[in-house]
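subagent[fold] <- orchestrator: predict structure for attached chain, return tokens only, no commentary.
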Amino acid sequence: MWKFIVRRVLLAIIIIVFGSLICYAVIRMLPTSYVERVARQRSTMPGSKGYQYILAQLNSYYGMDSSILVGFAKWGGNALRGQWGDSWFFELPVIQKFADVIGYSVVLGSITLFFEMVLCIPLGVLAARKQYSRTDYFITVFALACISLPTFFLATILKYIFSIKLGWFDLYGIVGRFYEQLNAFGKFGDMAVHMIMPIVTLTFINLGGLMRFTRTNMLEVLNADYIRTARAKGLPERRVISKHAFRNTLIPLITYLSYLLPNLFAGAMITETLFQIPGIGYISFQAMVGGDIPFTMFYVTFLTALTQISLMVADVMYAVVDPRVRIQ
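subagent[fold] -> orchestrator:
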């Protein structure tokens, strides 16, 4: 067990280093950057020096005048000491900005994940139990429709119906115009109302994949010999499904769900941007477009590390769910 854990930790470290290096190189090779934008703005001010002079000063100040490998090595050395620096775009410490916005994405992702689990797994099991019936066809068509819907299309339809036509919700934002005039309970309710359309959008977009995944794996289990044996013994169908079939369906589901943990902290970039929810997805998009290397590098490294941790937890959960899986 310890040898396995050590190997996985070492592999995770290598993946994090190379993933961070690729991200750093991509940002450095973008056609424009934060430094160039600031230099362009300052060069247009009265009495300022030329653009090239200001650009050279800023490149030296931000360490952009070195090669990609040298710059990455400097960033990595600071990161190992826990010094993530200040966000260039938001002009705040990276950790502080991350802490200010991560809560919105976690709440949004957690509620969405709850509805996914409540809806997808029972519907997937039901479709497998009633294979080729009207119920199965309806659930399959519904799942395919959810998979096919683009996020921006569904969000636009929801905003057009419930914001423009009915006027039930605001088009954008996390709070309303009169948020500061409300009491604590009113502020909570105002934010909850503004979360409804983003949650509905994310839930419908993500329903199809998990639903189809559950149905496919449930069908494989239901066709196994031990299921036919359990039925031949006269066990009730509910017990056959809940005790024998569903437990073995959990093994591939754990693999699927292991990727959902990083998604809670990754934020729904498109959805948050469309509804202008100040979560980590929307903020990181602004940082990447603005060439904010400190914030982007922290965000990417954090997600890469979280992904590796979730995969290691999934390996442990295999042994919990399936007694046949043991690490010798």
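orchestrator: received. Logging for downstream: The chain has 14 helices and no strands. Residues 254 and 304 are 19 Å apart (CA to CA).
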